[in-house]
């Protein structure tokens, strides 16, 4: 095999850096999710990607093309894991690989993972808002006894108003 060129090593270095960025994005995404299957799935994918990235770093000088491929496959695996985790239901987007070159693909993946993290964060906010609303409704909604008592009190007050204005309310004009 021919000696690795400087350009190949630089390409491998960029691929490894992109893999590291994707790992951190997906790790942050996993932290946004509640504990459970999806979170465990993403954390496992991050661990696998980290192992692949470290292997790529180890072989970057000896075989930079293989290292770049390994780092790219780690990033693709992370992208697949975020898609499988259920945060992207119904998207029919074509795979990024055929449309863009490596740097553009990496940027697009980073944006995609950030977008998914924002979606997960929004879902968590909505869940907290609904829970908060349920608690407030439970605390402020009167019980049946309180409602009965309020109705009695309203009837008494209405009767007192009628007595104060005269015995018959029928004679007054209504507007």
Q: Could you explain how this protein is built, in words?
A:
This protein is mainly α. The chain is built from five helices and no strands. α1 runs parallel beside α3. The termini are far apart.
Features:
about 180 residues; mainly alpha; 5 helices; about 0% strand; rod-shaped
Rg over alpha carbons: 31 Å
Total domain modules: 1
Q: Estimate the mean pLDDT confidence.
A: 81
Shape: rod-shaped
- Poorly predicted parts: 87-100
Measure the end-to-end span. Answer: 99 Å
The gist of it:
Residues 1-11, 53-72, 144-157 have a biased composition (Basic and acidic residues). This protein has 175 residues and is an all-alpha fold.
Write the topology of this structure.
Elements: H1 6-32, H2 37-59, H3 64-87, H4 102-140, H5 144-165
Helix pairs in contact: 1-2, 1-3, 1-4, 2-3, 3-4
Biased composition (Basic and acidic residues): 1-11, 53-72, 144-157
Region (Disordered): 1-23, 53-175
Biased composition (Low complexity): 166-175
